[in-house]
Design brief:
This protein is an alpha+beta fold. Helices cover 45% and strands 15% of the residues. It has helices at residues 3-14, 91-114, 126-150, 154-169, and strands at 24-25, 33-36, 42-45, 51-55, 60-63, 71-74, 79-81.
Length: 170
């Protein structure tokens, strides 16, 4: 095959359209295949059972059976997540996220430092535990927002991974 033949092969592969008559790997579980539903412009996964509405002009799909508007675009080889238009994570958001994590933790920790428990108290270490819980609770909130922004379906992925492990043991 000539160099021009290789270029046309790769160009055709990446310029391929989203077709209802084809099967693609699932962008959610990454295990099953999505194929078209009869008489609909939609796809369904044979493993995780999610339903996707297809936009053939944009070569994109959107998961319709979830409360999150997760969507992906087909580039000819794999699925790429589509980020929400007009929303960018800039420097200011990162500063606010760090302050959201550290400020409440610092308030609780300083309160525990300046007002220590009485010696011999039953719950003497509770202030340290409460400070750690404050940090991890706020960190969890920020991580959840990041996961929502980048549209990584952690719960759906964990559910499909659990189903895959359950199928292997059965």
């Amino acid at each position: 095959m000539t160099i021009q033949g290789h270029q046309s092969f790769f160009m055709n592969r990446f310029d391929s359209v989203l077709d209802l008559n084809s099967a693609y790997h699932c962008p959610v579980c990454r295990h099953g295949e999505i194929s078209s539903l009869a008489l609909m412009d939609a796809f369904a996964c044979n493993f995780c059972r999610h339903i996707f509405a297809a936009n053939l002009d944009d070569k994109s799909i959107e998961m319709v059976d979830s409360h999150l508007p997760l969507s992906w675009r087909w580039n000819g080889n794999n699925w790429q997540g589509i980020h929400r238009p007009g929303v960018e994570l800039g420097f200011g958001y990162w500063v606010i996220a760090i302050l959201f994590i550290l400020l409440p933790t610092a308030i609780v920790g300083l309160g525990a430092y300046f007002f220590p428990p009485l010696p011999g108290a039953v719950l003497g270490n509770f202030s340290i535990i409460w400070t750690c819980l404050t940090f991890f609770a706020h960190l969890t909130c920020v991580l959840w927002l990041i996961v929502e922004y980048y549209q990584f379906p952690i719960l759906l992925y964990a559910r499909s991974l659990g189903a895959r492990l359950f199928q292997r043991t059965s």
